[in-house]
Amino acid sequence: MAMTVGMVCYASVGGSGIVATELAKALAMRGHSVHVVSSEAPFRLGGYQAGLSFHRVHSPAYPLFREPQYLLSLATKIVQLAREHHLDIVHAHYAIPHATAAYLARQILADTCHDTVPRVITTLHGTDITIVGSDASYSETVAFSIEQSDGVTAVSQSLKEETYRALEIDSDIRVIPNFLDCDTHRRVEVPELRRRFLENGRFEKLVTHISNFRPVKRIERVVEIFRLIRERVPAKLLLIGEGPEVGGAARRVHEAGLGDAVEMLGEQDEVVALLSISDLFLLPSSQESFGLAALEAMASGVPVVASRVGGLPEVIDDGLTGFLHPPDALRAMADSGVRLLTDPELHQRVSRAARRVVERRFCADRIVPLYEAYYEEVRGRKDSRVTIRQ
Ligand code: GMT
After folding, report:
1. 375 and 5 Cβ atoms separated by less than 8 Å
2. 46 in helix, strand or coil?
3. What CATH number is associated with residue 82?
4. Atom of ligand 1 nearest to the CA of 287
5. Do residues 284 and 368 share a domain?
6. What value does the CA radius of gyration of the chain take, rounded to a whole number of Å?
7. Most ligand 1 atoms within 8 A of CB, residue of 290, 307, 312 to mutate
8. DSSP-assigned states of every residue in 178-223
9. Ligand 1 geometric centre to CA of 60 (Å)
10. What is the Cα–Cα distance from 40 to 54, expressed in whole angstroms?
11. Distance (Å, rounded) from C-alpha 160 to C-alpha 153?
12. Which residues contact 42 (CB under 8 A, 6 or more apart)?
């Protein structure tokens, strides 16, 4: 049955915004009416699509405020949308502050507009629990908001377990893994682009890293692993993305004398072509609740060498669809990278197995119905976390 959904997410480059946006687009394609709510249009929203609309949250400034009042303006926007469009579900991606804003909106609606109280589902993505959410400055409110949600999902089993460890909550958390549009995310043929980056034979292999350059991504380790690989393979590193660690990464590249062999491409909307020309993807993060970037690489048949942390072992089968090592085992990561770059048979085997596992387990047509079924389940429950005052 078609539903009306408010999809609340961050617009900045990052996995949670990508997952929310791709889910919104997929649900609209399947006949639902989806209202994406954020401070700006999320970067992968794309052009007009029937059933999909975007609603910008404005947070007016006032000289007294030191910071924008986003929680209040977001809650108010959800209330307005629920009244206007009769939302069945508000789906908050990333608990902070979206689950809290959704809770507040639902309470306001329960008091003022009984017939338009949506059910609230919160999807936990990672650092909303592991880093920020468990910080004592936020944890009580985050835990309360998650518990007050009518439904809670986590993007990996590891994140579900971590949530129970980090916060005192008794919500039943459903694991629904991240997904991709497997028709878009595949290997495309772009030989001229590859030649351009290889500088007509000056380099032989392309190693790639894509992220939002936050400290957990440990970009300096990416550079160090690449430096070790470079001792044995004439490779070039493509660093794709923007974030607080970009300056540090550039400095590290310079200090390592790798200026010639590293290209920093900044933020890129379309990563499929860049992944399609890559031979290896590095993700030595200190934490990763899922690792959507690794999944995108695997979908394009690029073997991934990553840290054995968080949800990455649920995405990468060590030795079969990629290689996993302890986060500080930089030399082991470089060794795995060199093996993949110098053994064409191994490379082909891992590349094909990676693509196969994405097709079997992580395509939109497999995962989106899980969200739809969960929406139905939560909507159909007799009890809600909200008490409606008559
Ligand atoms: O942690 C972040 O940087 C936020 C978040 C995001 O918006 O990119 O990333 C998390 O959510 C992604 C989508 O579910 C996951 O693929 C990432 O693994 C996760 N990041 C971490 O756990 C560090």
Report:
1. yes
2. coil
3. 3.40.50.2000
4. 23
5. no
6. 22
7. 290
8. --B-TTTSS----HHHHHHHTTTTT--EEEEEES---GGG-HHHHH
9. 28
10. 9
11. 8
12. 9, 10, 11, 17, 18, 20, 21, 36
Residue 62 burial class via C-beta count within 10 angstroms: exposed 0-12, middle 13-18, buried 19 and up: exposed
Per-residue pLDDT of the chain (390 residues; tens, 9 = 90+): 899 999 999 998 689 999 999 999 999 999 999 999 999 999 889 889 999 999 999 999 999 998 999 999 999 999 999 999 999 999 999 999 999 999 999 999 998 876 779 999 999 999 889 888 888 999 999 999 999 999 999 999 999 999 999 998 999 999 999 999 999 999 999 999 999 999 989 999 999 999 999 999 999 999 999 999 999 999 999 999 999 999 999 999 999 999 999 999 999 988 999 999 999 999 999 999 999 999 999 999 999 999 999 999 999 999 999 999 999 999 999 999 999 999 999 999 999 999 999 999 999 999 999 999 999 999 998 777 666 555
Do the beta carbons of residue 18 and residue 46 sit within 8 Å? Answer: no
Same domain, 202 and 342: yes
Residues 167 and 213 in one domain: no
- State whether 318 and 197 are in the same domain: yes
- Tokens at 5, concatenated: 């959904």
| Residue at 306: amino acid letter | A
User: Which residues make beta-bridge pairs with 54?
Assistant: 36
Whether 247 maps to a domain, the answer reads: yes
The verdict on 239 and 327 lying in the same domain is: yes
> What distances in angstroms separate CA 364 from CA 37, 185, 254, 359, 367, one per listed residue?
21, 11, 40, 9, 5
Residue nearest to atom 1 of ligand 1 (CA): 127
Find the 191 Cα to ligand 1 centroid distance in Å: 31
My answer on whether 144 and 267 are in the same domain is no
Q: Does one domain contain both 164 and 258?
A: no
Residue 116 lies in a domain: yes
- What residue numbers bound the domain in which 237 lies? 191-361
Report yes or no on 184 lying in a domain.
Answer: no
Let me know whether 136 and 258 are in one domain. Answer: no
Nearest partner of 74 among 47, 108, 51, judged by Cα:
108
Question: Which ligand 1 atom minimizes the distance to the CA of 212?
Answer: 3
Number of domains in the chain: 2
